[in-house]
Amino acid sequence: MRFYNREDELVQLKGIKDMAYADHSKLTVLTGRRRVGKTSLIFKALDGEPFIYLFVGRKNEADLCSGYIKEIAQKFDTFVPLMDTFVDVFRFLMEQGTIRKFSLVIDEFQEFMNVSPSVYSDIQNYWDQYRTKTNINFVVSGSIYSLMVKIFQDKKEPLFGRADATMRIRPFTITILKEIMHDYKPGYTNDELLALYTFTGGVPKYVELLVDNNALTIPKMARQICQNDSPFLGEGRNLLVEEFGKKYGNYFSILDAISSGMNTQSEIEAFLGDKSIGGQLSKLETVYEVVKKRRPIFSKEGTQTVRYEISDHFLRFWFRYIERNRPLVEIGNFAGLEKIVMEDYATYSGMTLELYFKQKLQESFEFRAIGSWWEAKGAQNEIDIVAVYLDNKRALVVEVKRQKKNFKPQAFEEKVKLLRSKEMYKYDIETACWDMDDM
Fold it and tell me: In 78-118, where does DSSP find H-type helix?
């Protein structure tokens, strides 16, 4: 699959590189979940430029440095002395920056915590010494978001405040997913577009796996995901174990509960045997950013009317189908797993359709607030989408149905009337029912 999107990010990365070469060294931090395309973006931005690429694997420090020396010697076409600690390698690179302009990329930067935690202090020491005397475009990236935030945003850490720019790389937009489908499956159906969004969440690597295997119909997507040795099967576990560490079990249980439809704290705690989970839910939201709180639109920040949802679309799918059906994977019944996914696809994608439309509205940049509305008490009426325009005078209220034949106009109008009387008496309200044809 060819390289897509990232025009704004490419402009920013190239601009920072130009400033580093013209003025003095700059440090850029790239974060984002696994498989979102951070490394591909860096390579694209530095295409045709001299750069050193160092990947931090979970190896012995001396073994890592041996590989780094070979990379540096080849790229600089110069003799590089033997070094078995990264502090020596980094000092050598900083010294090189006094005589040449180049980009230095360190990938999976957070892994130095497992190799030699003192590396961050060493980098801070030599970066502070050489930054204004060199012309190095220093780019670091990492896929364990919580650790990257800690390294660069925790005041107690040596590299706090050293980043000149921080970029969070996110999955593809809906516009890009449409472009990909148009390029690789002309004449695609809206249902196939929704399936791509549902199964991958727009994560570039997952999209690429389906594109490269010509799996862009719904049955082919399901088969590609559920087959033996599919990278999708272990991806959710690998991603979260890296993020959570040894305590992943409790977090997995909470995410499993949310994926099962338990979306309030009391429901989740009951699902887990009345275990208190307030602190873990808070970490999942604020530290790991795996779940997010949803409140009825217009409600105040402190309201107790809160629902939790898994914020990563792929993880929502993975927990619902792969993790929940782990016994099928373990006995090799991939056909059974595929059957479950296909049989439930219409129901599950119907729920994802609401998220699709919310993201589409968000990407239009026409609204100041987008959310849902429901009553905390009483009849608990609910409306799928409420979006307030930038002028704060008009609003769009939408019911989402996979098939419009299931839409009940009178019931919807009663809910809109209630919403108007409670929260939206000052808005001009436009109402609509959106289905698959409106994608």
Answer: 86-96, 112-115
Contacts 24+ apart (CB under 8 A), 216-224: 216/181, 216/184, 216/185, 216/188, 216/192, 217/185, 217/192, 218/191, 218/192, 218/342, 218/345, 219/342, 221/195, 221/196, 222/338, 222/341, 222/342, 222/345, 223/338
Residue in 256, 171, 169 with CA at minimum distance from that of residue 206? 171
Distance between CA atoms of 123 and 136, rounded to whole angstroms? 14
Rounded CA separation 401/367 (Å): 22
Q: Which of 60, 314, 346 is nearest to 207 (CA)?
A: 314
Residue 377 has pLDDT above 80, yes or no: no
* Per-residue pLDDT reduced to its tens digit, 313-359: 999 999 999 999 999 999 999 999 999 999 999 999 998 999 999 99
Helix (H, G, I), strand (E, B) or coil at 212: helix
Amino acid at 346: A
Tokens 């078995």 — which residue?
84
Report whether 1 contacts 207 (CB < 8 A): yes
- Closest to 280 measured CA to CA, from 295, 302, 265: 265
- Domain ranges in the chain are 7-168, 176-352, 365-438
Alpha helices, H only, 100-189: 112-115, 119-130, 145-153, 174-184
The span from the CA of 102 to the CA of 20, in Å, is 9
Please report which residue ranges of 309-408 form alpha helices under DSSP H. 313-317, 326-330, 334-364
Rounded to whole angstroms, the Cα distance separating 138 from 223 reads 42
Tokens 């979970």 locate to: 58
Rounded CA separation 239/314 (Å)? 11
- Helices and strands (DSSP H and E) totals, the chain: 19, 11
Geometric angle at alpha carbon 318, from 314 and 321, rounded to 5°: 135
The arithmetic mean of pLDDT across residues 171-188, rounded, is 96
Which amino acid appears at position 366 of this protein? E
Note if the pTM is more than 0.70: yes
CATH superfamily of 7-168: P-loop containing nucleotide triphosphate hydrolases (3.40.50.300)
